[in-house]
Amino acid sequence: MTTLKERLHADVVTHMKDRNKVALTTVRNVLGEIETREKSGKTPIVLDDAQVTALLQKEAAKRRDTARIYTEAGEAERAAAEIAEAEVIEAYLPKPLTAAEVETIVDEAIAALKADGVELSLRQLGAVMKPVTATVAGRFDGKAVSEIVRNRLAQQ
């Protein structure tokens, strides 16, 4: 299975052949950002898929925010360009989860801890959050996940 970074590199060639300038430029910019992150610091590192996904989420959010600013300033054309770039980036992100799916994941984590004999209260928030966060990883808002876990633990 190819990594997300390998997929981005392969898509550069695809976008060149398709003459899709927006997608080509966007993917090249993202790859440049990835390489900058990898080379910055004292020792070079290689970002894994989770880190690349987090970077892609930040880049998409940055473009959406810039588009909002352009829209408020009356620059509809520039806003549309930023939104187009955000959509290209978002195509590489995993499918977001619904609130119901997250609630099911939280319930399963709580059931697993109960089966292990753990007495659940709000003090075990971290014990529940750890497996839930690993499963949800970038597909749902972390604050919202925390609220769902708090509500479920309060009901225990």
Give an overview in words.
The chain is mainly alpha-helical and 156 residues long. The chain is built from 7 helices and no strands.
Q: Characterize the largest beta sheet: strand count, sense, and whether it forms a barrel.
A: none
The CATH class name of the largest domain reads Mainly Alpha
Q: The CATH topology of the largest domain is what? A: Hypothetical Protein Yqey, Chain: A, domain1
Low-pLDDT regions: none
At a glance:
The chain has 2 domains: 4-90, Orthogonal Bundle (Hypothetical Protein Yqey, Chain: A, domain1), CATH 1.10.1510.10; 99-155, Arc Repressor Mutant, subunit A. The protein is mainly alpha-helical.
List the helices and strands and how they pair.
Blueprint: H1 4-18, H2 21-39, H3 49-72, H4 76-90, H5 99-115, H6 125-136, H7 142-155
Helix pairs in contact: 1-2, 2-4, 3-4, 5-6, 5-7, 6-7
List keywords for this structure.
mainly alpha; 74% helix; Hypothetical Protein Yqey, Chain: A, domain1; 156 residues; 7 helices; 0% strand
